[in-house]
Amino acid sequence: MEVVRYRAGHPLVTETDEAAAEEPLEIRVEGRSIAVVMRTPGHDRELAAGFALTEGIVRNGFEIFEITSCLTTNEASAGNVVDIALRDPARFDAARLSRHVFSSSSCGVCSKATIEAALQQFPPITAAPAIESKVLLSLPGQLASAQAAFQRTGGLHACALFDPRGELLLVREDVGRHNALDKLIGHQLLAGRLPLANCILLLSGRVSFEMTQKALAAGIALIAAISAPTSLAIEFARAHNQTLVGFLRGATMNVYSGAKRLW
Questions:
Q1: What residues are labeled active site?
Q2: Does residue 100 surpass a pLDDT of 50?
Q3: pLDDT tens-digit profile of 106-148?
Q4: Is the CATH code 1.10.3720.10 the one for domain 23-118?
Q5: Which end of the chain is less enclosed by CB atoms within 10 A, N or C?
Q6: What is the pTM of this model?
Q7: Cα 225 from chain centroid (whole Å)
Q8: What HEC string does the chain produce?
């Protein structure tokens, strides 16, 4: 799209630039609409699968029969509706979600109707590998190099999975940080790779309560971030035996929970 660039001491110039795409995605379960999320189009099946897991709709990938893109007569909704079919539809309780219809790209937990609905229950971490500190320090550079869409637009969050040796396994980008994580988790869920106790999760921004909760739903024990965690994220990580690292930059980091796993 066209933008007008201003540079001090220079005339205004009209140039072509890229902007991060943002469109609504309606997620249905057994034909019933449960949420509309504002996301970057792409990897929508993964997003729906990750959402289903972290919302407690399913407990594993086997419980998902299929995820399909729905045909619609509304041109504006074309390609923006997915439906999750369950192997046991009778288990699905839509009323339990207590979720409003709309979730913005900046906040997923904001659409929850009650505090109880926001506080999903997932078991704490019981075991995870020890990680060498210098491995963590090497991760931000790898993530930056893998953020292709961010390099073009400057407008996307990213989540990445690494193995204990620091090898990059998977990256997902989205205008919503919680969407990026749902896409990452959804990919691993559909591939039958959960739980992810032996993986390191790296976030390109801050760590909110919702991000630690989603990570726990996938069995992730170690969460690291370029920016800061919130107070509730720290409390949640400590209560569920997760290692939480913030301000992972250069040769320094802050460890807020689970320092025993680092050496």
A1: 107
A2: no
A3: 555 555 544 455 566 799 999 999 999 999 999 999 999 988 8
A4: no
A5: N
A6: 0.88
A7: 13
A8: CEEEECCCCCCCEEEECCCCCCEEEEEEECCEEEEEEEECCCCHHHHHHHHHHHCCCCCCHHHEEEEEECCCCCHHHCCCEEEEEECCHHHCCHHHHCECCEECCCCCHHHECCHHHHCCCCCCCCCCCCECHHHHHCHHHHHHHHCHHHHHHCCCEEEEEECCCCCEEEEEEECCHHHHHHHHHHHHHHCCCCCCCCCEEEECCCECHHHHHHHHHCCCCEEEECCCECHHHHHHHHHCCCEEEEEEECCEEEEEECHHHEC
The yes-or-no verdict on residue 70 having pLDDT over 80 is yes
pLDDT in tens, 138-173: 999 999 998 887 778 777 999 999 999 999 999 999
Query: Would you call the peptide bond into 123 cis, given omega within 30 degrees of 0 as the criterion?
Result: no
Q: What is the pLDDT of residues 163-214, one digit of tens each?
A: 999 999 999 999 999 999 999 999 999 999 999 999 999 999 999 999 999 9
What is the assigned CATH class of domain 133-261? alpha beta
Q: 114-145: b or e for each residue (b if 16 or more CB lie within 10 Å)?
A: eeebbebebeebeebeebeeebbbebbebbee
> Per-residue pLDDT averaged across 19-48, rounded?
94
